Amino acid sequence: MSILLSNISKNFGKFSALNHIDLEIPEGELVALLGPSGCGKTTLLRIIAGLEQADEGRVLLSGVDKTEQHVSSRGIGFVFQHYALFRHMTVFDNVAFGLRVKPKKDRPSEPEIAKKVHALLELVQLDWLHDRFPDQLSGGQRQRIALARALAVEPSVLLLDEPFGALDASVRKDLRQWLRSLHHELNVTSIFVTHDQEEAMEVASQVVVLNHGRIEQQGAPSDIYDHPANAFVSRFIGQTNIFTLEQHDAQWLQTSGLQIAEDQHGKVAHVRPHDIDIQKAVDGSTAQAVLKDWQHLGALIRIELVKDSPDDSGATVFAEMPNEQFKQLRLNKGDKVSLRIRNAHWFH
Amino acid sequence: MTTMTNTQPISAPTLRHVLHDPVWVKWLLTAIAVGFIILFLCLPLAIVIFEACAKGWDAYWAALSQPDAQAALRLTLLTALATVPLNTVFGLCAAWAITRFEFPGKSLLTTLIDLPFSVSPVISGLIFVLMFGAQGWFGAWLSAHDIKIIFAVPGIMLATLFITFPFVARELIPLMQEMGSEEEEAALSLGASGWQTFIQITLPNIKWALLYGVLLCNARAMGEFGAVSVVSGHIRGLTNTLPLHVEVSYNEYDFVGAFASASILAGLAIVTLILKSVLEWKQGKH
Question: Once rounded to an integer, what is the mean pLDDT over residues B14-22?
C-alpha cells in the first residue's frame, strides 16, 4: 500500500517537531527514516500509525485519507523499539492477540488462529519458543516475536521504530539481513526509523533523511551517498573531510588535483576519505601532508594525515584505502606524502 | 617496592572493617527493633484479646451479639462496601489520567490526591460538617429538602470516601508510570478497542498493585475513627461504626464490650497484614 503524507506539522509546546512534511512512499518499498535524535523521525512514524495526531496535514494510505482514523482501524503493524510484548502472555498468545480481538464476525476460529500463529512463528524461526513468556527470551528473539505479532493482522503497512536500537552489535547485523530478506518475501510497504546511517544504507531501498523536522533528502541509498543534496546530508551519511576555501589555501586544493572554477558557487568542499589517493612524496615540493597515524578498519585502512602548509594550524585529513594498497606504499609515520583528490561535493 | 608490600596485607582487613559493624552494634539495633515491636505492637494486641476474654467466652459472645455491636458491625461493613468500590474506580481513573495524559494542572492533581493523608482526619470531618451541617453552606437547602447527611449514614460514607481515596491511586501511579504505555499502544495498533486493551492488557499488569491498594483502602475504611467521629453524632445502633462503638463502650466502663469489638478490628488488621504480604510476594514475582 502506498503512503502519502501531505503538509504534516507537529508541535510539542513551543518545540516544532515536524515542519510541513510532504512525503510519498510507493507500494512495496522498504524505507528508512534516517536522522539524528530529536529530528522528528519517531514522531512522523507515530503520526503515520495514528498513535500521535498531527497538528495539520493529511495521512493517506493507498489513496484513502486516514487522518481522522483511530490507530486500531488503520490496518498498520507497529513494532516498538522496546518490543512492547505483553509480559503476562506467552509468545503464542502474544502473536494470537491481534486475531483474537477481532469482532466476532471477522474472527477466525481457534484452530485457524493456532495454524496461523504457528506459521508466523515459523516465519520468524521461533516456533519452538511458543509457550515461553517474553522475559525468558533474548532481545533478538523478542524483536522477532514483536514482528510476528504485528504481521498476524496482515497489515498493509509495517512501521518499525528503531527496530535494532536495543540489540547487541552482532545480533543487529544478523537481524538487518533477515529483515531485508523477509521484506523481499512479504513485499509489504515498510518504514523503519533509525539514527544509524550504515543500517539505513544496508537495509532500505529508499532513504529519507530528516533533520530539525524537515526532509533534507529522499532517494535510493546510493543516490544519497553519491549525490548528497546539502552539507548536512553529506556529513550525516558517512565520513567526510571538510575544506572551506577561506580557511584552506585554494592553491593547496588545486595542487591536490581539485578543479576550482572561477565562478565557483560553493565555498565548502566535502571530500570522502576514499576519494583521496596518497603517494609517497618524491621530493619536498610536491608534498602536501605528513602521515601521522593509521587504523585498521577490517578490509580498509584509515590514514590520518596532517596538512602541511605554512599558514595552517595542522588540520587533520582522513583518507581510506584497501589494506593491500596501503602495504604496497610502504609508508611510515612522519613520511611526507602527496595527495590526489578524485572527487568533491561543493556546498555553501 | 615498599608500597607494594605494605598495601597488600593492610587493604583487605581495612575494607572488612569499613563494611562490617562490630557485633555489639548489630545486636543492639536488633534488640531495639524487636523490643519496640513487642512493646508497641504485640503487647497491646495481647491485651486486647486478654481483656476481651477476661470474663470468659460467653461474655465475649454476649458482648458481640448486643444489638448495638451488631449494628456497628453492619454499618462498618456497609460503609466499606460502598466506599471501596467507588474509590477503586476513582483510583483507576486518576492513575490513568495522570500516567497516560498530559494536561495543565497535572502535578497539582497528583499533589491533591495525597491531601487526605496530610490533613488531620478530624479536620476532614469538620469540612463536611461545615458544608452539610445545619449551619453549613448547604445546610438550609438540605433541611428544606429533608435530606440528612451530617449525623447520619451518608455523612459517614462521605467522610470515609474522602479519607480513603488516595490508597488505590497511590499504588497504581508509580507502577503505571514505570510500565509506560507501549503495551497498550501495541494492543491498539493490533486492532483492539480501548476496553479490550484495558481488560486484557492493562488490568493483568496492574492487578496485584490494584488489589493491594483495595486492601489498604478497605482496612482504612473499616478502621477510620477521627473523621467519622466528627460527622457521626454517635447515635447508638444508628450511626456508630465499629471504632466508634469501641470508644462508646469503653467510656461506659463496658470493658469486655469495648475489647471484644476491638478484637474484631485487630483481627481485620492481622488478616490485612497476611494478605498484604501475599500480595507483595505475588507482585514481586511478576
Answer: 65
Q: Is B160 a residue whose pLDDT tops 90?
A: yes
Contact at CB, B185 and A78, closer than 8 angstroms: yes
How many whole angstroms separate alpha carbon A320 and alpha carbon A276? Answer: 7
Burial class from Cβ neighbours inside 10 Å (0-12, 13-18, 19+) for residue A165 reads middle
Rounded mean pLDDT of A142-163? Answer: 92
Give pTM, 2 decimals: 0.79
Minimum Cα–Cα distance from A86: chain B residue: B183
Residue B65, C-alpha cell as written in the block = 451479639
DSSP A36: -
Radius of gyration of the CA atoms of chain A, in A = 25
**Spatial contact of B164 and B217, defined as CB atoms under 8 Å apart:** yes
Q: Which of B273, B255, B247, B260 is nearest to B49 (CA)?
A: B260
Distance of residue A251 Cα from the nearest chain B Cα, in angstroms: 57
Test A97 with B182 for CB contact under 8 angstroms.
Answer: no
Residues of chain A with C-beta less than 8 angstroms from the C-beta of B187: 86, 97, 101
pLDDT band of residue B18 (cuts 50, 70, 90) is: low
Chain A residue closest in CA terms to B193: A72
Strand order in the sheet with A241-244: A241-244, A268-271, A345-347
The whole-number pLDDT of residue B5 equals 43
| Segment A242-263 mean pLDDT | 74
Residue with cell 618524491: A282
Q: Is A15 on the interface with B (CB under 8 A)?
A: no
Instruction: Give CA–CA dist A4/A1, Å, rounded.
Output: 10
Can you give the C-alpha Rg of chain B in angstroms?
A: 26
Using CB atoms, pick whichever of B185, B191, B193 lies closest to residue A98.
Answer: B191
Q: Under an 8 A CB cutoff, do A80 and B186 touch? A: yes
- List pLDDT tens digits, range A321-333: 998 888 888 888 8
Nearest Cα of chain A lies from the Cα of B86 at a distance, in angstroms, of: 27
- Cβ-based neighbours of A279, under 8 Å, separated by 6 or more: A329, A337, A338, A339, A340
Portion 198-257 of B in contact with A at CB < 8 A: 200-201, 204-205
Question: Contacts from A281-289 at CB under 8 Å and sequence distance 24+?
Answer: A281/A335, A281/A336, A281/A337, A281/A338, A282/A338, A284/A336, A286/A255, A286/A338, A287/A336, A287/A337, A287/A338, A288/A252, A288/A255, A288/A256, A288/A337, A288/A338, A288/A339, A289/A317, A289/A336, A289/A337, A289/A338, A289/A339
Q: Contact B191/A73, CB-based, under 8 Å?
A: yes
Interface probe for B, chosen from A101, A113, A143 (most Cβ of B below 10 Å), is A101
Residue B273: the pLDDT is: 87
